[in-house]
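Appendix B: complex inputs.
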Amino acid sequence: MTTWPILSVLIWFPCLGAIVVLLAGNARPRVARWLTLAFTVITFALSLVMLTQYQIGPGGFQLQENLRWIPGINTSYHLGVDGIAVALIVLTTFTSILVIGGAWQVIKDKVHQYMAAMLVLEGLLIGVFCAMDALLFYLFFEAILIPMFFLIGIWGGPRRVYATLKFFIYTFFGSIFFLIGLLYMYHRAGSFDLATLWAFPFTMREQSWLFFSFLIAFAVKTPMVPVHTWLPDAHVEAPTGGSVILAAIMLKVGTYGFIRFSLPIVPDASQHFAWLIIVLSLIAIIYIGYVALVQPDMKKLVAYSSIAHMGFVTLGLFIVYMLARGQNDAQMAELGVQGAVVQMISHGFVSGALFTCIGVMYDRLHTREIAAYGGLAKVMPWFAGFWVLFAMANCGLPGTSGFVGEFMVILSSFTANPWIAFFAAYSLIIGAGYTLWLVKRIVWGTAPTPEAAAMPRMNAREAWVLTAFAVAVLAMGVYPWPLMHLMDSSVSQLVTHLMTSKV
Amino acid sequence: MISLNDLLVLVPELFLTAAACLVLLFDVFIKDDQRDATHWMAILIMLVTIFTVIHGQPPQTVTAFGGMFVRDHMAEILKVTVLIATILMFVMARPWLKDRKLFMGEFYSLSMFSVLGVMLLVSAGSLITVYLGLELFSLPAFALVALNRESKLSSEAAVKFFVLGSLASGLLLFGMSLIYGATGSLDLHTIFASIGTTPHLHLLQFGLVFLVVGIGFEFGAVPFHMWLPDVYEGAPTPIAMYISAVPKLAAVGLAYRLLEVGMGPLAGDWTMMLAIMAALSLVIGNVVAIAQANLKRMLAYSTISHMGFVFLGLANPTPEGYSSALFYAVCFALMETVAFGVILALARKGFECEMIDDLKGLNRRSPWFAGMMAISMFSLAGIPPLWGFAAKVLVLKAAIDGGMLWLAIVAIICSIIGLFYYLRVIKVMYFDAPAEGVEPLAPKPDLAMRWLLSINALGLIAMIGFSGVLFAWCQHAFGA
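Resulting structure:
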């Protein structure tokens, strides 16, 4: 065990980096870029150190730090990670490097502010995954909005102001009810500490109210179906880096919230309302899949496909109750949760890669219209190869990371109810439909315009970034065992916890 | 009988009185170009007063003049914050005043007398002291609002402030006379004690209503808020800054003294009145602020909504509730000084930063000031990790603990509405291009102001970490 607070370092080191980068000033974009890269790489290295220090066997929350924050309301600066959090933190630090690489020359205006916002965002996201105090979690959860607000608003597309205000107010609207829920829990339990809240026996009535206060917050963030409309706007208007962070990591904050709050704190209400989440997830998977099919804009298409994929995550998380409580099948329930988490990570890589690809194309033709592209296979053959790979991962081809999570979720939902599995599996068809059709229009055929035919090939930077994504996608697809092993004990502890009723 | 002990209790106030008179005299004998001496002298006096407040603070509550004057920890916190806010105002006001030929000695002596009024008010142990402090605070404040004699807007604001202020103190005085009639005493503790035995309970409740009106006026809570936007708009900007921060702190003290110390047994009556005023302030303040194009008017309506949040804490008559309200007021005062500080910094000779559109493209012109303003806006909106968030959590918690979940939900919904206009300021600064013909030069305020403003703004981030310490002080002040 270490004696130095590695989680705090992971959170605050990128934030420190942001200050340093800001000091570099607007006049020296080169310095700002290299500094940022250095900070993200070091953060990644630190997260690997954390990975090695996390002991898989015993599970539970490790590397804990606990400092007094506001003793008057019994809230503290309490950090700790379990296997799920460790995996998500490494995903964050890894993706951050690629995001910085992806935006290298694309961002030309106020580079230092852009890079600083990215670094702050990275630190805060790590904070969300580490927080073991509900108020601290909320602090990071909300604070993420600030850098993201600037990222979309300053460096975004033509309708960026609309998109960023919608994004901010929408998500704030969701999470503020979560805050009321937190304060109510404090009122009852007398502490904001998550461990206390997990153990506290809330009554069924309370649990139901709390469940919905959590649901509003996390459903908006995830996003789930009726409250997903901010996401396509935010994605379309965000700069490439913003889109990648948004899709790859920020959406996971919502589902992570389900894992940390809804499932363990209000297990009985979650069981009671699991049907609601399952129905909403299935709607997301099927209906949003169809919506994605008709999008003329590449970014919107991938954004909608993200919503559909997140539907798998929520499905995997809430199918657990049918298995664990309904059929007393803890093993299958664990499979569902694991599938959900694997899907979270895999979607991080795949959607991040797809948005990066779109960014590469956008930098060349400055349009996201699918119709403006064609014949990539001839114009940019290597790039077309990457496109096809990530598209396949997006529709869940075996051997890619996309397959593993979806398969696990479908398998566990089959045990719960074959019809749920049927509808969930249906998404594989739609997913293949919209993804392959996109590939057909962009990669095959002929270039519609002379500009599209004369697009320059990938440069080394783009190739490196995409290669890194590709390696991650394939590695997870072929050999997912290390990841599953990492969170094995944490997932089984979670499932054991939520099998016991609180009322 | 005045004993030496009584005077010792009053050392900070006595010192400030003498020093303010000294400044008044001193300023008469210096030339206009030596006025900086008055400026630094005033700041020095404020610092010494802070020192005397903190250094001479007895561990226990002490009273002087037969209970007319109380020196306790709540008064200490409020006094120190008021003095800090005034120092901030002095430093940030200097360049602005100089540019407008308003750099006069009166500004300093009037401000100091006004602060003295606040110090008396928050230490009041009887209705007389309350009234004395209130008037001593208000009268110089009226004059300060009218400092710029040439400006019609200022004069209008001053007259409005004066008329409505007099009306409010008249009502307060009327309420006090009723209470005196019902209990036969002006001493707050005696009133408290006799509430249980008095046969004139209805008279007392009738008087209470007028007290609440006076308090509501002091806070600028709906429906007694009408003066606030006009005064913010019309008053010279530094005075608007003063009015936005200091009376709110004074009002927390006023509310605690009158309602808890004096009328505690009637808490069932006044908490409901405060709760209704809180809900109205939250709704009207936030909704009307959206429609404002004038930055100061927007801040005025935002202030109204924030007073709703303070009431959230006060409406829970427990030490926890009061300490959260006190925390909120302290936090709010220091957020407002940043917002007004940036407005002052951007104003130049012949140009006022009046409209929200004047901030257009500020990030291109002066990223540092844009950053400061963004911090204060996010903090006012209560977004973590800024200080305003901690304050908001504490008052919401107090409301929920006090059984007012509905009020907390109203507050939450209103803060979503409020988010819009704070974000609009940030949007204008960061996402819009500078307007045509605006001077491209970044503002160059003097060094002291630049530093103090930066420390003040960065403090809004740093304080989230130290919220525990401050909250502990606030709790200690109310004996929790």
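The interface with chain A takes residues 323, 363, 367, 378, 383-385, 389-390, 393-394, 396-397, 400-401, 405, 408-409, 412, 415-416, 419-420, 423, 426-427, 430-431, 464-465, 467-468, 471-472, 475, 480 of chain B (CB under 8 Å).
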